[in-house]
Design brief:
Elements: H1 2-26, H2 29-41, H3 46-58, H4 64-87
């Protein structure tokens, strides 16, 4: 009985890993870059990254185009963070920039 349970757990782990890999592979370059930056510049913290981006938005003067990009990045971060939380993973373990 224990072997069957262990096998089932392994299958579930493999299925969950496949879901994460598929998600990571489908990310656009902008989202992949955010995952890498979170890992390398913000010690793996979405909160620190969002705080930094929001602080940049509050500074004057700023370039309008940059403002739009930051807002887009914050929206992407929320989606990425939600996926990581729902799946208990760090996408940096799955993303490579090409």
């Amino acid at each position: 009985m224990a072997k069957r349970t262990k096998n089932r757990e392994n299958q579930e782990d493999l299925q969950a890993d496949a879901v994460v890999r598929d998600y990571a592979e489908a990310l656009g370059n902008e989202s992949k870059m955010l995952v890498v930056l979170k890992s390398q510049l913000y010690s793996g913290s979405w909160d620190t990254m969002v705080d930094d981006l929001n602080n940049r938005l509050k500074g004057k003067p700023y370039i309008f185009k940059l403002t739009n990009r930051i807002n887009d990045d914050v929206a992407r971060i929320e989606e990425l963070r939600s996926f990581e939380k729902a799946n208990g993973v760090d996408l940096a373990d799955y993303v490579e920039l090409t």
